[in-house]
């Protein structure tokens, strides 16, 4: 099991940027893929971005492609989500997740992840 702590959320105007961080502990970090999901009020949790253990492969939801960038620093046991050109529809609680298995899936489901952070609120005003 791995423990995850997100930070970096907040309130930003449309068109602005935020950088989320997720610090991991309790397991060999570089072995496992990581991902970001989000959940808006009244909606189901949805996939945002994923990254392989080495950081060499990444994937994104169509709604954020070209605006968001996922990255990781295995020396710091941290994964990041750089969010640019934010839109009001990006408003949600963002969750960091660690995969239960060591192989990378480009379009993972939430059930592929066994460890979750507590979430960080991102609010984009129009």
Question: Could you characterize the architecture of this molecule?
Answer:
The protein is mainly β. 0% of the residues lie in helices and 49% in strands. The strands form two sheets. Strands 2, 4, 5, 6, 9, 10 and 11 form a seven-stranded mixed sheet that branches. The relative contact order is 0.31. The mean pLDDT is 95.
In brief, what are we looking at here?
Helices cover 0% and strands 49% of the residues.
Strand content: over 45%
Report the strand count.
11
Low-confidence stretches: none
Coarse shape: globular
Distance between the termini: 39 Å
> Radius of gyration, Cα only, in angstroms?
13 Å
The helix/strand order is: EEEEEEEEEEE
Largest pleated sheet: 7 strands, mixed
Overall average pLDDT: 95
Structural class: mainly beta
Question: How many helix segments?
Answer: 0
Helix fraction, binned, reads under 10%
Descriptors:
single chain; 126 residues; mainly beta; seven-stranded mixed beta sheet; 11 strands
Task: Detail the topology: elements first, then pairings.
Layout: E1 3-7, E2 10-13, E3 18-25, E4 34-39, E5 46-51, E6 58-60, E7 68-73, E8 78-83, E9 92-99, E10 113-116, E11 120-125
Parallel strand pairs: 2-11
Antiparallel strand pairs: 1-3, 3-8, 4-5, 4-9, 5-6, 7-8, 9-10, 9-11
């Amino acid at each position: 099991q791995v423990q995850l702590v997100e930070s970096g959320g907040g309130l930003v105007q449309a068109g602005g940027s935020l950088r989320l961080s997720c610090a991991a502990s309790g397991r060999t970090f570089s072995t496992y893929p990581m991902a970001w999901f989000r959940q808006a009020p009244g909606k189901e949790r949805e996939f945002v971005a994923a990254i392989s253990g080495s950081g060499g492969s990444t994937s994104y939801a169509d709604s954020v492609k070209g605006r968001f960038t996922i990255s990781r620093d295995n020396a710091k046991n941290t994964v990041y989500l750089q969010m640019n050109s934010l839109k009001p529809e990006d408003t949600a609680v963002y969750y960091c997740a660690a995969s239960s298995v060591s192989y990378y899936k480009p379009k993972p489901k939430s059930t592929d992840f066994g460890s979750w952070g507590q979430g960080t609120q991102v609010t984009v005003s129009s």
